[in-house]
Amino acid sequence: MTINWQRHPRDHPRTVDSVVAVVLFVLAFPGSRYSVSDVAAPARWWPCVLLAGISCAALLWRRTRPRPVTAVAVLGATGMALAGYVMTVLLLAPLMVALYTLAAHTERTTTRNVTLAAVLLVAGAALIADPAGEGLALNVIGPVAWLLLPAALGSTARFRRAYLESVHARAEYAERTREEEARHRVAEERMRIARELHDVSAHHLALANAQATTAALLIRSHPAQAEKMVNALGDTTTAALREMKATVGLLRRSGDREDSTQPAPSLAKLADLVTAHTAAGLTVTLTTHGRQRPLSPGADLTAYRIVQEALANVAKHARTSTAEVALTYTHDRLAITITDHGTGPAATASTPDSGYGLIGMRERALSIGGHLRAGPRPTGGFEVSTELPLHPYAPAEDSTP
Fold first, then answer.
1. Position 394 in a domain
2. How many domains does the chain have?
3. With CB atoms 3.0 to 4.6 Å apart as the test, which of 6, 87, 242, 379 could cross-link to 143 if both were Cys?
4. What residue spans of 288-399 are helical by DSSP H?
């Protein structure tokens, strides 16, 4: 029931305005009993009641036409002041309601100008009716205060309504863009997982292919070495399955997620990567220059994946048995260079923008503020070089340390 009473004024504004007009008209009767000339012996009551009735009747249109209604109320109050009535709150009530409505529904400039005009007209008329100034507090100071109050309250209501509308608009905009933002984040996450899957599968499959090919060539002439290759092939496929399981596990729902106890790949595992390629028949020389510095987790994973992908490309395409990996540390960056002396497609036909592997490596470097170059060497072979910031999101420079 309480909620219905609260909603009734909003659902029936015309009824509310009619009730307000009737109540204010009734209040004009006791207000008409006081005049400036003789407070104890009031003047004729009907001019005051007539002007108040016109002002109250105009309030029925205060929501749709606040300016004309306010003008009628100002003229009515001015007429009552000129007739010598004491301008109490009982007689000023219709004008006060009109000023409140005007301030709540029009701009600030209009409210200020109309309120100033109303104050000057009513106060000036009161002074004309009582030039001796015997009722200055009742006819000037009181009306000024009573007329400024509804204008201030109406302006406050308008500001509050504008604020609530802006909050509502922002909420609607956020609601509209929430789904788009969710799709954008899902696409980014899919890209990241796809890149991880490509790096893992490409590396381990290339390594497994090299091990299987080498074992097939050595199975008759060097059976012991071929057996070693086959055993290493099992380790390679096991590592591939483990990394793919960890990556694909990110696609599970949070309630189904399994906590992984395996650390993320990093440069600390670079020696194991070199050993795995050496077992597959690719001799990798690893050199480090400068004092080793700690990398951010993102930079550490990116550096490992770039070396992993580059060595996988060498094993698949370069037609060579050797490769060199050089790590150079400076005060704020890590430079990585992977070179080979092969004569395969990687050394003769590849360009810096060809192949998903090169695209993935370049995207990884750019994502943490680094850059990557890849292409054939002038003296033969292929080279991949990258510079990564040691700290997250550090800007990359074009100069080579």
1. yes
2. 2
3. 87
4. 297-313, 345-348, 356-367
Contact between 310 and 294 under an 8 Å Cβ cutoff? The reply is no
pLDDT at position 46, please? 79
Where among 145, 173, 201 does a domain terminate?
173
Tens digits of residue pLDDT in 24-59: 888 888 877 766 554 433 457 778 888 888 888 888
Contact 306, 265 (CB under 8 A): no
Nearest CA to 286 out of 311, 256, 262, 312 is that of 311
Query: At 202, which amino acid appears?
Result: A
Decide which of 173, 206, 234 is a domain's last residue: 173
- Beta carbons of 111 and 148 less than 8 angstroms apart: no
Whether residue 270 sits in one domain with residue 169: no
CATH of the domain at 381: 3.30.565.10
Query: Residues 164, 288: one domain?
Result: no
DSSP-H helix ranges across 329-382: 345-348, 356-367
User: Residue 360 in contact with residue 309, Cβ under 8 Å?
Assistant: yes
Which residues on adjacent β-strands are paired with residue 284?
A: 323
Which residue, chain included where needed, has tokens 């709150």?
89
Quote the pTM value. Answer: 0.44
SS3 letters across 201-249: HHHHHHHHHHHHHHHHHHCCCCHHHHHHHHHHHHHHHHHHHHHHHHHHH
Please write the tens of the pLDDT for every residue from 144-195: 888 889 888 988 888 888 888 888 888 877 777 776 776 777 677 667 666 6
The sheet carrying 333-340 orders its strands as 283-289, 322-329, 333-340, 382-389, 371-376
Name the pLDDT band for 394 (thresholds 50, 70, 90): very low
Range of the domain at 391: 265-401
DSSP annotation of 106: S
